[in-house]
Design a protein that fits this description.
The chain has seven helices and nine strands; from the N terminus they run ββααββββαβαβαβαα. It is of the alpha+beta class. Helix 1 packs across helix 2 and helix 3 packs across helix 4. The protein is elongated. The N and C termini lie far apart (45 Å).
């Protein structure tokens, strides 16, 4: 069975499951473990299966379909959503995770998002080696594209805990908050304040 990994130049590097499992066994040896001991024999296969799940963001077939609807009521009010996310830091391949807070203002003559799709987009964009800053941008860009760029503005705040800071190095709490705004949210301080007030209400 093949595991296909797509790099940033869209070139496909094909790696078999067995090659991946051999690489994991090599890592085990490098850290001083015995990959043949009873508790570890099946670990390379388990990690290979896990990688397909937690790095599905590299697989275009896993990209979520984003449902949109006609804005028949011509509403231009803020729509707010929040939830959890999990990702992997690209610097040390350790998890970072936390809460996201998202809002957008639809165009009166445009379309509106199926709000349940926001969580799917966050999950998909997070399912690869990431930076928290880039993750914010990618989520907004994908949702904006689904609305053909026809929205008044987008806002996202992601609060994360990075295990590469709390498990190693300086070993502090590893907390980080990143925000990204477009359109009206970028230009209007009162609108941003309303968004932050809604976060405080969560």
């Amino acid at each position: 069975m093949e595991t296909v990994i797509t790099n940033t130049q869209d070139n496909k590097c094909k790696v078999t499951d067995e090659q991946l499992q051999d690489a994991i066994r090599t890592i085990m040896l490098a850290i001083g473990e015995d990959p043949e001991r009873e508790g570890l024999v099946e670990t390379p296969a388990r990690i290979a299966r896990m990688y397909k799940e937690i790095f599905r963001g590299y697989n275009p077939d896993s990209k979520p379909a984003i449902t949109t609807f006609a804005n028949s009521a011509h509403e231009t009010e803020m729509v707010f959503d929040s939830g959890d996310y999990y990702s992997m830091c690209e610097h040390h391949m350790l998890p970072f995770f936390g809460k996201y807070y998202f809002a957008y203002m639809p165009s009166a003559d445009g379309r509106i998002l199926g709000i349940s799709k926001v969580a799917r987009v966050v999950s998909y964009c997070a399912a690869k080696l990431q930076l928290q800053e880039r993750l914010c941008r990618e989520v907004i860009e994908m949702l904006s594209e689904a609305l053909d760029g026809n929205a008044i503005g987008f806002a996202i705040v992601m609060k994360g805990k990075h295990l590469c800071k709390s498990m190693r190095g300086i070993r502090n709490d590893g907390d980080m908050t990143v925000s990204y705004f477009t359109g009206a949210f970028k230009d209007d301080a009162n609108l941003r304040r309303e968004f932050f007030n809604m976060i405080q209400m969560q």
